[in-house]
Amino acid sequence: MLTFLAPVWSIGFLGAVGLPVAAHLLSRTRYLPADFPATRFVAQAAIETTRVNRPRHLVLLLLRVLALAAVVAAFMQPRWQREAVATTGQGRCVIIVIDISASMQRAERGTSLFEQAVQRADAELAGLDPASDTAWVVLAGRSPRPLLPEPGGNMSELRARLQASMCTYETADLQDALRLAESALAELDRAGKVLILSDGQASARADGVLATRTPGVLLEKLAFGPAAQDNIAVQLVDVAPYPPTAGLPTTLTVALRNFGDEAAPITLFAEGAGDSAEVSMTLAAGAVVTRSIKLVPQEPGGAMFRVRAQTGDTFAYDDEAGFFAEVREAQPVVVFTSAFHPDADSAVYRLGLALTPDDNTSRYTVAIGDTDRLEEVAGDLDDPSACWVVCIATRFSDDFTAKLRRHLDAGGGVLWIADGPASVDALYDLAWVPLDVQPGTASAGVVASARFDHPVLRVFEGPARASVVGLSLSGVSQASAREGAEVLLSTADGRTMLALGRVGRGRFAVLNATIDPAQSDVASQPVFVPLVNELLRYLVPGPAVPKPLRPGDRLAAALHGPDTERPGRPAEGDRGVAQHPGAYVAGGPTGELTAGQWVALDPAESDLKQTADTASSDSAARVQPASHTAWDVRRDDVALWPYLVAGALLCIGAESLLLLGFARREARA
């Protein structure tokens, strides 16, 4: 069927056709006949010339009329609409796409939306003739899953597999499933109908509109269930510090999203590793907020941490978040020094107090010893979780520096305080450290610039930054950072006071100053404790917070065994795939947790908003368990204006060629 987007140009079309013809007719010469015996030969020549030129003029007139008509018709933007082929009668081909995402598990009048979709699909299949009709069912999850390898007429097998199919906790990609259906129809080389059964969730559509791109395909979309009025989603954002340390606070930060249209009172419950906490609040409509809950793990070992929101909404699959962590004991710190003064006036005492305060809230266990007694002090020298601190040391053997390098290569961290001539000389001999110091150049210095955007100094915010910039240090040697090093503190004359760099798999930090109370009061300044703690945390960062899996992801190898616990009903099919939200854990022979992983619903699946065409539909037109109402039928159409423009250009070109040919012919005559 031919349609026009700008039919007002039809007036111009009539003019383009009529005006050249009228001009041609009006330009014809009219005269009265007069007999002249002497001009009869001229009259005969004129008649012969007219007989030759008249067909030429008519052809040129026709080409000009066609060119003008094509240009004006192009402005009318004609489109040829391809009617969708009806699917009634014999030889029908029907492909049914069913949404199996988590949102289809919502219940309406005691029946889930997925069960309603299965009933509707079964009724469609029951109305087909196996002898002549063809059918196919595609389940739309993270990737399309056909119930049979290809479309066919085995309706009984298809209906049996349809009844045995199950809804998932995945997100759906309806666009991908629709493209699979279209490609199947293209391979069959026949027209057909694609029936999409979904709740119309907006996140299931990549571009917001489901439309067929294949001519001759009737696209029918059926909506199930009303739009959800309320839903609260809980998503884990951060855990700090990670991994948790037994006896020390761990902060669990979660993001709360209210997808409803009204404020909702909620209560957050957090538990894990023998501790629990509770927080109550009211979440405004459409709000996205973060809340932090502190837990204190009681015992080291594997533990599952959970944060659950008591909301009362009908979509409970996104109301809980969690993670599995190996709660560790305090991180070991080994201080190598030559100054064993236990009194409060020693630098080592101040350093130990900064790491292990008297209130027993330290995340470190500190061992102090001489550089000549490595095995006594360091314990397991290959432990990459330990941080070595070199402070006021006067003896550095080759054995010490070799083991220091092996510790860095294994992933450990080193804080070197260059606070004396021996320490500066030993640092000068190490070409792989981040700072190039010059012995014998130490003098006082004042911090003039600081990298507050770096993780080590990010703890200093607002007025606390004034305690860093302007800090006076003693024993600052002339030094410059080597290639790849990061300068955190420096003086106005360009001397580097604190530098960081990577050595092997580990991190190396150099504090180019003394902390001896006899020479400097920096160890008694408020900035000293947080600076040292943040330095050690950065030098041995530990593992990153594990990202949650999504339903459909592969589980870790440790969670494939028969001792793996899963929430909800037993998983179908491959036991190595996460199918349900919640905790997947593996236990040891005595019941302790040995491995675990949290599986969370995809954040997009929590937003139950529907697309505009779904939301604008009349609620009475919703699909009921034994009836249906089509949303719409889309037809493909083809724009014709490019072809008209091309035709006009061809007419103009043909006219030019004809005029050139006529001119050459007359010249030869």
Structure overview:
By secondary structure, this protein is an alpha+beta fold. The chain is built from 13 helices and 30 strands. Strands 18-17-19-20-27-26-25-22-23 form a 9-stranded mixed β-sheet, with helices on both faces. A 5-stranded mixed β-sheet has the order 7-6-3-8-9, sandwiched between helices. The longest helix has about 35 residues. The protein is elongated and about 140 Å long.
Could you give the topology of this structure?
Blueprint (H helix, E strand, L loop, with lengths): L1 E3 L5 H17 L13 H36 L2 E4 L11 E7 L7 E2 L2 E2 H14 L7 E7 L3 E3 L8 H10 L9 H15 L3 E7 L18 E7 L8 E9 L9 E9 L5 E9 L2 E9 L4 E8 L5 E10 L9 E8 L3 E6 L10 H9 L8 E6 L4 H5 L8 E5 L6 H12 L3 E5 L3 H8 L6 E3 L5 E8 L21 E5 L2 E3 L4 E6 L4 E8 L2 E6 L16 H12 L42 E6 L5 E7 L3 H4 L5 H4 L21 E3 L1 H28 L1
Parallel strand pairs: 3-6, 3-8, 8-9, 17-18, 17-19, 19-20, 20-27
Antiparallel strand pairs: 1-2, 2-30, 4-5, 6-7, 10-11, 11-14, 12-13, 12-15, 15-16, 21-24, 22-23, 22-25, 25-26, 26-27, 28-29
Helix pairs in contact: 1-2, 2-13, 3-4, 6-10
Sum up the structure in keywords.
single chain; 669 residues; alpha+beta; 9-stranded mixed β-sheet
Give a concise summary.
The protein has 669 residues and is of the alpha+beta class. It has 13 helices and 30 strands.
User: What coarse outline follows from CA principal-axis ratios?
Assistant: elongated
Helical proportion? 25-40%
Q: Report the average pLDDT across residues.
A: 80
Got a strand count? Answer: 30
Helix count, per DSSP? 13
Which strand order spans the largest sheet, edge to edge or round the barrel? Answer: 18-17-19-20-27-26-25-22-23
